[in-house]
Design brief:
The longest helix is centred in the middle third of the chain and has 18 residues. The chain is an alpha/beta fold. The chain contains 12 helices and 12 strands. The protein starts with 6 loop residues before the first strand and ends with a helix.
Length: 343
């Protein structure tokens, strides 16, 4: 995945398996393949959206990148430093530059800590500021995210969901990170509050030069905030390209099905659209199908899809896809056939 832009984060073959143990002696009988060979780049200053249905491994990917989960295999290069090999003080230093905003603003903030202590905790852990300097930094961070510094002695239960998410964002900004992993930061909020939080994220990115990995399942919001979008299915990325190309010309049948489910506000366009209805249930990550992971639900599968896993390669400039029908540059007719079959 090459580009003239600077690569801040390079993920290569990342895997995270959770062991399945049974019996009195907790014998290892299998693995839940939550993330199974994921590769992508995040360029400095951009927002990469990571989308997919529940259970596809989006959150696990984000947590493994930042080493909240230990990776089973693969590499995570942050400015050419492999995060997967760091330990102790070296890992702590690198974590100052990578922070995370969690999905649930009610569970991610300790109810026993005041806002002052919550936001100041990273400063204390990394010994960045103490005393009056720490208090000034907390007040500054609260102002940055649109909260009154006079609230710093209050506790999380005294705030709304949107305000709590702003507190979590202030905590993430405390150490001046380069990369923030946003794990569905708006999914637990009201629609009116969602727009406020997204606008805040965009303003902070412009002012502070932040880079986001934005994990979500709301495709309309991802289109609004993201520069590029990666689509994930059953632990693997099946398509990755820039936002406009993905929404205007999706190549993978799973991406086409996802986008067909997004309502269009124009009633005339909505009447002319044809939905791609996927049949069957999402396979278990503990026992994924042979060949392509999507072959149990794909409306255009072929024999090769049942036998061989497709490679995730560049099918157009900057457009990556993992599908046997759309890989070669020399076969544009395959893409036309796929679109016609899915539509």
């Amino acid at each position: 995945m090459t580009s003239q832009r600077e690569v801040l984060l390079h993920v290569e073959g990342l895997k995270k398996y959770f062991p399945i143990r049974r019996g009195v002696f907790q014998r290892h009988v299998g693995d839940v393949k939550a993330v199974d060979g994921v590769s992508f780049d995040v360029f400095r200053g951009e927002t990469l959206g990571l989308v997919g249905e529940s259970g596809c491994g989006k959150t696990t990917t984000g947590r493994t990148i930042i080493r909240l989960y230990e990776p089973t295999a693969g590499h995570v290069f942050f400015e050419n430093v492999d995060m997967a090999t760091l330990k102790g003080g070296a890992l702590r230093q690198m974590r100052r530059r990578m922070q995370m905003v969690f999905q649930d603003p009610y569970a991610s903030l300790s109810p026993r800590m005041s806002v002052r202590n919550i936001v100041a905790e990273p400063l204390e852990v990394h010994r960045v500021a103490t005393g009056p300097e720490k208090a000034e930094r907390v007040a500054e961070l609260l102002e940055v995210v649109g909260l009154d510094p006079a609230f710093m002695n209050r506790y999380p239960h005294e705030f709304s969901g949107g305000q709590r998410q702003r507190i979590g964002l202030a905590r993430a900004l405390a150490l001046n990170p380069d990369l923030i992993i946003c794990d569905e930061p708006i999914s637990a909020l009201d629609v009116s509050i969602q727009a406020q939080v997204v606008n805040l994220l965009e303003d902070l990115q412009e002012k502070l030069g932040l880079t986001y990995l934005f994990i979500a399942h709301d495709l309309s919001m991802v289109r609004h905030i993201s520069d590029r979008v990666a689509v994930m299915y059953l632990g693997k990325i099946v398509e990755l390209t820039d936002r406009d190309t993905l929404y205007d010309n999706p190549l993978h049948p799973y991406t086409q099905a996802l986008l067909s489910a997004v309502p269009v506000p124009d009633p005339f366009i909505e009447e002319q659209r044809q939905r791609v209805i996927l049949e069957g249930d999402l396979p278990s990550p503990a026992n994924p199908p042979l060949g392509c992971n999507f072959n149990t639900r794909c409306p255009v599968k072929t024999d090769v899809c049942m036998e061989r896993e497709p490679e995730f390669i560049e099918v157009e400039e900057g457009h990556f896809c993992a599908c046997h029908l759309v890989q070669p540059f020399e076969r544009p007719e395959a893409r036309v056939r796929l679109r016609a079959s899915a539509g």
